[in-house]
């Protein structure tokens, strides 16, 4: 009898070790190493590898023929765009997100639309019974016979069902519930998740089926168990949003068939998710115009500009070290920009607490928001509100200079479309593009000049 091999695997990063350890040397987490019995490399896989792959010779890159990957389009523009215009056949896509955020709802809606467009769809739920799925489907108004549902967790039955029904689109909700009967560790453990994903990958690639898998997210925010799952799949999407808000953001963090940083915005309604066509409007909806500390920036999210409000609250520190807190922007930028304001503009900020927030629960991580953050901080500190019709764009360097940003035309055009009257932009970005007529363009060289122009002397 083949001896089964026991290993200790970190459930958070996938680090393997022959003996148990309290702290994982891979990621430094405590108590994440668990014992798992590994499957012996089965001959089936070895045969599989050799039978389908004839020995390949290296060939010149110019001689390789390319074809456009065939894509399936859904009726949801936002969803198509995040995937890089449509679902690629034979791709494996992982969707992660907090429990209850709407992953099952999104995928059931997508499944239903594809079925309406005459694609065969198989929706496999390991978490809900077919009755529960049906209840949700009734709420969403699903009515195509082409959508098949199955409640199953055993991978061999799942493969068999795919084999028999020959769908063009498969959903596996969720990968943590699926188990491979040859592996003795519990469903959701690293080796189970890894083997199941590898098997689904083989199915997707050999049959040209688009497979979507749902993955749960851990407390720390990575897809549960293994970050290695992210390496195995073609595309990783995150579905995020605050549970108390109805807006949901679908974001690509890895995409072998398109650009990352694309985002799609949805709103959770009584009858499922609805696309939000103009995100800038919703992000600015609740803005209190003319408040000090509030500015608007045009930030690029993938290929699309969105206008978002940046809020700052600066107040004297009551005791101890001043606090610097930021939500939605990189918290290291805040002390940096405050230091620039202190040293280059002469604002005395060292004994002030600073709280920064991007309204609407969006995360911004591009440097083009620096200037808006700096103006917000100064505005709150001086209690001088900027004009509510100003949009502020620019990167700030350590000498206080305002540096040029990419895609200025798109940013300013979006601002003009939403009725902004003046764009404060880097001097270096002036010229060479078509500025919209109904917005005044003001170039600034440094932070001091930007403050003078927005907040006055
Ligand atoms: P769900 O898709 O089950 O989340 P996940 O699969 O990510 O765990 O979403 C569940 C939430 O969505 C639940 O709180 C109810 C809400 N919801 C609506 O508001 N409208 C709807 O039409 C549906 C189906 C769900
Ligand atoms: Mg679910």
Q: Which key phrases capture this entry?
A:
single chain; 457 residues; alpha/beta; Rossmann fold; 3 domains; 4-stranded mixed β-sheet; 12 helices; 23 strands; binds thymidine-5'-diphosphate; binds magnesium ion
CATH homologous superfamily caption of the largest domain: P-loop containing nucleotide triphosphate hydrolases
CATH topology (level 3) name of the largest domain: Rossmann fold
Helix content: 25-40%
Strand order of the largest sheet: 8-7-9-10-6-11-12-13-14
Tell me the span between the first and last alpha carbons. Answer: 84 Å
Number of domains: 3
Under the CATH scheme, which class of the largest domain? Answer: Alpha Beta
Low-pLDDT residue spans: 45-51
In round numbers, the mean pLDDT is 87
Largest sheet: 9 strands, mixed
**Architecture (CATH level 2) name of the largest domain:** 3-Layer(aba) Sandwich
**Fraction in beta strands:** 25-35%
Layout of helices and strands, plus pairs?
Blueprint (H helix, E strand, L loop, with lengths): L4 E6 L5 E2 L15 E6 L4 H10 L18 E2 L4 H6 L4 E2 L3 E6 L5 H14 L4 E5 L4 H11 L6 E5 L3 H11 L3 E5 L16 H18 L2 E7 L11 H5 L2 E6 L6 E9 L7 E7 L2 E4 L3 H6 L9 E8 L2 E13 L7 E4 L5 H13 L6 E7 L11 H13 L7 E3 L2 E2 L5 E2 L4 H10 L4 E5 L13 E5 L2 H9 L2
Parallel strand pairs: 6-10, 6-11, 7-8, 7-9, 9-10, 17-18, 19-22, 22-23
Antiparallel strand pairs: 1-2, 1-3, 4-5, 11-12, 12-13, 13-14, 15-16, 16-18, 20-21
The site of magnesium ion has 4 residues, from α3.
């Amino acid at each position: 009898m083949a001896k089964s091999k026991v290993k200790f695997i970190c459930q958070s990063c996938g680090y393997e070790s022959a003996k148990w350890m309290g702290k994982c040397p891979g990621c430094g987490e405590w108590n994440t190493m668990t014992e798992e019995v590994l499957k012996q490399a089965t001959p089936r896989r070895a045969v599989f590898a050799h039978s389908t792959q004839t020995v390949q010779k290296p060939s010149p890159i110019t001689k390789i023929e390319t074809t456009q990957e065939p894509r399936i389009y859904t009726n949801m523009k936002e969803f198509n765009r995040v995937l890089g215009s449509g679902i690629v056949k034979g791709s494996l896509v992982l969707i992660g997100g907090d429990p209850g955020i709407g992953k099952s709802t999104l995928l059931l809606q997508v499944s239903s639309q594809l079925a309406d467009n005459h694609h065969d769809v198989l929706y496999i739920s390991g978490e809900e019974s077919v009755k529960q799925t049906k209840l949700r489907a009734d709420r969403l108004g699903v009515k195509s016979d082409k959508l098949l549902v199955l409640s199953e967790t055993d991978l061999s039955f799942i493969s068999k069902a795919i084999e028999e029904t020959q769908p063009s689109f498969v959903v596996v909700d969720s990968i943590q519930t699926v188990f491979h009967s040859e592996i003795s560790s519990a469903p959701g453990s690293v080796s189970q998740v890894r083997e199941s994903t590898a098997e689904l990958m083989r199915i997707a690639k050999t049959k040209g089926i688009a497979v979507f898998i749902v993955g749960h997210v851990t407390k720390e925010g990575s897809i549960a168990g293994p970050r290695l799952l992210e390496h195995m799949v073609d595309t990783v999407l995150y579905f995020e949003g605050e549970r108390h808000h109805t807006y949901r953001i679908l974001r690509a963090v890895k995409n072998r068939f398109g650009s990352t940083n694309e985002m799609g915005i949805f709103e959770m309604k009584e009858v499922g998710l609805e696309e939000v066509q103009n995100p800038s409007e919703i992000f600015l909806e609740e803005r209190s115009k003319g408040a000090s500390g509030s500015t608007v920036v045009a930030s690029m999210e993938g290929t699309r500009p969105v206008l978002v409000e940046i809020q700052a609250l600066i107040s004297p520190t009551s005791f101890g070290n001043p606090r610097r807190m930021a939500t939605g922007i990189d918290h290291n930028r805040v002390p940096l920009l405050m230091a620039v304001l202190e040293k280059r503009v002469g604002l005395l900020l060292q004994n002030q607490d600073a709280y920064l927030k991007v309204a609407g629960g969006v995360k911004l991580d591009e440097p083009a928001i620096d200037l808006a953050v700096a103006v917000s901080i100064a505005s709150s500190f001086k209690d001088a509100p900027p004009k509510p019709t100003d949009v502020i764009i620019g990167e700030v360097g350590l000498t206080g200079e305002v540096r040029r940003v990419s895609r200025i035309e798109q940013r300013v055009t979006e601002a003009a479309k939403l009725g902004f009257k003046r764009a404060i932009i880097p001097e270096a970005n002036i010229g060479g593009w078509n500025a919209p007529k109904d917005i005044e363009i003001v170039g600034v060289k440094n932070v001091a000049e930007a403050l003078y122009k927005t907040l006055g002397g």
